[in-house]
Amino acid sequence: MKRPLQGRCAIFLTLLALAISPASSARAADNIGPQLRAEIERAKPQLGALQPWQEEAFLSEVLASSGRFVKDYRTKGGTITRAVVDTDGIKKYLAFHASQILKPENTNVLLAVRANDKCTACVGSVPDIRQDLKARLERRGMNVIVLNALESRRDLMEILGSKNAVGWVLADLKSVEDLEHPGDFKYELGLEFRFPGTAASRIQKQMEVLAGDSVEVGMSRLSIDGISELGAKVQLARVGAMEQQGNDGLEVVLSNVTEFSQLVQLKNALQDKLNTQARVVERRLMHGQSVLAVISNLPAQEVAQALAQPDLGRFRVRVSAVSNEQIQAVYLPAPAAAGGGR
Fold first, then answer.
1. Domains annotated on the chain, with CATH
2. What is the pLDDT of residues 108-150, one digit of tens each?
3. How far apart are CA 315 and CA 329, in angstroms?
4. Is 4 exposed, middle or buried (CB count within 10 Å of its CB: 0-12, 13-18, 19+)?
5. Greatest pairwise CA separation for the chain in angstroms
6. Long-range contact pairs involving 87-90 (C-beta distance under 8 Å, separation at least 24)
7. What are phi and psi of 96, to 5 degrees?
8. What are phi and psi of 242, to 5 degrees?
């Protein structure tokens, strides 16, 4: 069985190919990126309707980091024959907007980029990283106040008041010696999102990249992870608030459920698919019919779509009707495997 050229395996094979034929390998690498972007563009309808700022972020950020949003792919002769696009990951990345945590009268956010003076690559990457972060934040409705190098090294909490800002984003770049390989160096990258007194509060991301690798690409990866987590954290807080307010949620009525274990299995699978975008709770199980409640801001059609996805062969769900208040479906257990199953 062919395996996808990803992760360390992909890096190893790429380096091996470069040693054999640098020109042909470079052409192959150049050919994969556009194909991945095309696969993501083909999957775009699965994201549902996007707001204008999300459309812009999709074009400028998601497509620019196409490898980050493709879970798996296979190639033959330099052509991608199959790709699995991470549509859930894209939805999470496009979920966060400043309006979810900041008041419209003040969306001022500080942007600080610190670099170790002894790290030439770090200092050289500051302008590009600053520009990239500024663009991502502005697309999400923030008024970005860029701090200079001296201001970036100060206690940012002290600067908030003088700049009339409500939060900050701090990128920290440094070069450190690799303790496992004395004499070798690596880059340590950090990214902090801080919005005191809001549902987002504080998000911190860190990663290491080898010396010689791109500091800018590493920070882009941290940006995607950090912004995705911001969206998840805000959504989780909103779902919790809805529960406290006594929101009954969207009813999911399933027939053909005969055992409580089936209900739990189904509930857990749906919760995994919806992740932090919703909370799935049990309502009742009676006479072969079960009722779950999905507490979220998601449209009923999106919940129904998640419900109808097969769950690793253990069972499937056939959706029969969808309204704004209720989803009706049939639970279909997987048939027992021949010879007693696994």
1. 7-86 (no CATH), 98-243 (3.40.50), 250-340 (3.30.70)
2. 999 999 999 888 999 999 999 999 999 999 999 999 999 999 9
3. 13
4. middle
5. 73
6. 87/43, 87/46, 87/47, 88/273, 88/275, 89/228, 90/40, 90/47, 90/58, 90/62
7. -90, 135
8. -65, -40
